Amino acid sequence: MKNSIKIDPFGFREYDARWLYPDNINLEGVTHLGKGLGTQIKSHTNKENPRIIVGHDYRSYSEDIKSALKKGLLSTGCFIEDIGLSLSPMVYFAQFNLDADAVAMVTASHNENGWTGVKMGIKKGLTHAPEEMAELKEITLNEKFTIGSGNEKKISNFQKIYKNDLIKNNKIEKKIKAVVACGNGTAGVFAPDILRGIGCDVIELDCNLDYTFPKYNPNPEDLEMLRAISKHVIENNADIGFGFDGDGDRVGVIDNKGNEIFADKIGLLIARNLSDNHRNSKFVVDVKSTGLYTKDKILLNNLCQTIYWKTGHSHIKRKVNEEKALAGFEKSGHFFFNQPLGYGYDDGINSAIQVCHLLNNNNKLMSEIIDDLPKTFQSPTMAPFCEDNEKYKVVDELVSKIEEIKKNKDKIDGQEIEDVLTVNGVRFSFKDGSWGLIRASSNKPSLVVVTESPTSDDRKKKIFDFIDQLLQKTGKIGEYDQKI
After folding, report:
1. Cα 96 from chain centroid?
2. Does one domain contain both 72 and 148?
């Protein structure tokens, strides 16, 4: 790599690319990334001049990054259609609406200021998975670029087309009072208008764009953001609170009493609400999600099937596409709605709309709807340190160990393991619906541990103690970020 080009190889993540700018990537590095991406798109589409939708989020440096990226794409022969300031889902929607060959969205999502990145995709509705990211990294770092003659056009007013698409089929009758929080991120231009458009009474919280993020990062898993929404919901006697991340593909939900509702539980409520009109549907959820889906009476009565799959928005999105599932729900707040509800990609505003339909169809408050779900005792996501070069080996070892325990009918807290799922680490469950999960983190030197029991808090804890003992015996585990 030439001296003036800076591009840290670690920026190529499992599903997208992210760097600290300008420390780990400079503008020449971003142009290189554009050349790599353009070359990759040409090879996958077999087109000399593939059409690429490009957009950017509201950060002080995002337009500079986008210009550098476009320079690289143009040099390979790509025809760029720039839709300007965007949410990630707006870029994904534009690929369908304008029938383009690929997308490149300049965003670092909910990361702190100083971060930049690109979310990319070729097949409509899907984003790069680990294989495509590995291929892009190899092309870019080894400079295996094609050369061509590209061009560029600006698509003006696309924001309106995107907003209208979400509003037109989603009108609600009930006047739902919703706090809409955007943490001064890009969703502030979109979410209030769209939710007002479907019929909500919107109370805005930090919806003015400010790339310094003066209060907190726009991240629906950030406790500061959730507390601010909660306070606003209670003060305004609102029915619901929504918090959107920096690029608008995730949503966090607060009920009318100011309590946060975990995304996997919201997913189950949405699935129940949809299942009445969409019998025989499939739903995809990630392995960190509640075990309630499999035994849910409403889903079973409506002959719906739930598939547990690998954690990661790219994995769930692909599985929803492959299974022709009606929807997919990831515990981090990425929800995916397939036709006729959406185009299969994650859109935080569409997710909020589905929650509004849930409220519209029930003569109950959000807190009452949540109370209809069986109570479960759920651990937070816990991450014990484990070296990157060790973590997958440790998980493989534990998969064998747990399969052996099941085979020998050994008991944990008086129960035998009934089922072992190994699509992503190992998730083992018991007859009463309790379960434990151990998997390798896809983006940090750590493992991921989650446990849940519908029976008791004590059983949840006993399953964790069992996992922790197995982990300690490996001798490869460091400190946990948090523990129960």
Report:
1. 20
2. yes
